[in-house]
């Protein structure tokens, strides 16, 4: 039906926008992780801080890395969902994916 097709296009458009937002969020986390890396990359500097150690940068990079990993999983899942929708070979769904990707990147 027409309403079902319109809803499908809107859902694919939103999924594409969310994909672009996750991609940007992953880039922000990468920048923060690089800033949180200690100047010395010795094994002692990269471990989690001890109970008495209050160094703010020590161990923080690991939390950013875990966040990046979760963002990556979400990005892969969304990418495959949009790919499968586009592979329905429906021109309107394809245009919804392209438009959503464009709007997501623009915003």
TrEMBL record:
Keywords assigned by UniProt, alphabetized:
Copper, Copper transport, Ion transport, Membrane, Transmembrane, Transmembrane helix, Transport
Q: Where in the cell is it found?
A: Late endosome membrane; Membrane
Entry's transmembrane regions: 6-22, 70-95
Q: A cellular component term (GO) from this record? A: late endosome membrane
Would the keyword Transport be found if you checked this record's keyword annotation? Answer: yes
Name any one GO molecular function. copper ion transmembrane transporter activity
Q: Name one Pfam family in it.
A: Ctr
What is the similarity comment for this entry? Belongs to the copper transporter (Ctr) (TC 1.A.56) family. SLC31A subfamily.
| Protein name in UniProt | Copper transport protein
Source organism per UniProt: Thinocorus orbignyianus
């Amino acid at each position: 039906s027409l309403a079902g097709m319109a809803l499908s296009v809107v859902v694919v458009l939103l999924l594409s926008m969310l994909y672009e937002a996750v991609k940007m969020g992953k880039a922000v986390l990468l920048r923060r992780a690089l800033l949180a890396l200690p100047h010395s990359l010795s094994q002692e500097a990269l471990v989690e801080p001890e109970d008495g150690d209050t160094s703010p940068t020590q161990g923080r990079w690991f939390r950013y890395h875990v966040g990046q990993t979760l963002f990556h999983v979400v990005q892969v899942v969304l990418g495959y969902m949009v790919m499968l929708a586009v592979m329905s070979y429906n021109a309107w769904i394809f245009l919804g994916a392209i438009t959503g990707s464009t709007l997501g990147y623009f915003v």
